[in-house]
Amino acid sequence: MSCEPTGLPVALPNLRESSFLLVSSQLVAGSSVGYNGRAMRVPLWLKIAWTVWVLCWIPLYWKQYGVQNFLFFCDLGNLVIAMALWSESALLFSWQAVSLLVFQTLFTIDLVGAWAIGRHLIGGTEFMFDPHLPWFVRALSLFHVVTPVLLLWAIWRLGYDERGWKLQTLTCWMVVPINYFWRPEHNVNWARGIFFVQQKIVPGWTYLLAYLVLVPVVVYYPTHLSLAWWVRRKTASQSRRIPAELHREA
């Protein structure tokens, strides 16, 4: 009697080889086909790279700043973006785009201005030039520059979900009151005053209520309208181009 396995086990080496080749092609070429047969629209290497970076970033930031720092919208965004990359969810990307695009872009402008001309045009990035802060912590904070590009690319790739601004408004209404009452000395998300300085112009509750109304109206909703218009314009352009290409082929 032969001891050689028969049936399905004989095909297992080929299956492993095929799986290896599939993963390799995804890493090299970017977008490919997942194990569930659905086409990947976000490159596998990007998913892995962001996940590895987040796993390195969390303990270093926690040690440097404390747990309350993860309630900053930009830091929450890193975690949500990791989920969005793996799920390829237009809703999650749209949520974070509404939350972060304006503020992260302003951060980038201020950082580049301070580096180029030695002056902060807006403010908020002074810590990036603080020699008392470890250089690797400041280097990790460069995610603020990368995030807007990543979010815009993802929305261009996956589309914009118009529920995103409502989800971010709800997030704001939940998180900022926590920032106001929990460890208020850290002024997370500027819950007690802009540029990390506690304001004393109006009563604290007045400032908090104004924040919860004005930020969604002045920042989130205009961002939502801009993204929706941008994606509609892209879709319309693609719709016009496809019939033209078919006409040329005919």
Short description, anyone?
It is built from 8 helices and no strands. With 250 residues, the protein is mainly α.
Tell me what you see in this structure.
The protein has one domain (25-30, 42-219). The chain is an all-alpha fold and 250 residues long. The termini are far apart. 68% of the residues lie in helices and 0% in strands. Mean pLDDT is 86; it is low at 1-31. It has eight helices and no strands. The chain has helices spanning 12-29, 44-65, 73-87, 90-117, 135-140, 143-158, 164-181, 204-249.
Features:
0% strand; 250 residues; globular; disordered N terminus
Approximate strand percentage:
under 5%
End-to-end gap = 64 Å
Report the order of strands and helices. HHHHHHHH
What is the residue-mean pLDDT, rounded to a whole number?
Answer: 86
Number of domains: 1
Alpha-beta classification:
mainly alpha
The strand count comes to: 0
- The 3D shape can be described as globular
What is the tally of helical segments? 8
Q: Which parts are unreliable, with pLDDT below 50 for 5 consecutive residues or more?
A: 1-31
Radius of gyration: 23 Å
Largest sheet: none
Question: Helical amount among residues, as a percent range?
Answer: 55-70%
List the helices and strands and how they pair.
Elements: H1 12-29, H2 44-65, H3 73-87, H4 90-117, H5 135-140, H6 143-158, H7 164-181, H8 204-249
Helix pairs in contact: 2-3, 3-4, 4-6, 4-7, 4-8, 7-8
